[in-house]
Amino acid sequence: MKRKYYNCELKELDAQKLKAKLKEEGIKFESSGVGYHYTHFEILCNDTEAETIDKFLMEL
Questions:
Q1: Overall number of domains in the chain
Q2: What CATH number is given to the structural domain containing 44?
């Protein structure tokens, strides 16, 4: 399945939760601080993984 990059920015607490979820799911990502207590994510995933991430983010 084809992978592409998705990105998002989250506050620190939610960013920590997303990092844990991505590691748990084995999804590759990079993150960096963008100031004002936000973290920017570049997430390499396929459509199925993107759905998993979307569901997780909706529950935060």
A1: 1
A2: 3.30.70.120
Between the CA atoms of 24, 27, 33 and 37, what dihedral angle is there, to the nearest 10 degrees?
Answer: -50
Predicted local confidence at residue 1, as pLDDT: 86
- Angle 49-22-9 (CA atoms, 0-180°, nearest 5)? 95
Q: What is the distance between the alpha carbons of residues 50 and 12, in angstroms, rounded to a whole number?
A: 21
List b or e across 7-23, with b for residues whose CB sees 16 or more CB atoms inside 10 angstroms. Answer: ebebeeeebeebeeebe
First to last CA, the chain: 27
Mean pLDDT taken over the chain: 97
Cα maximum dimension of the chain: 36
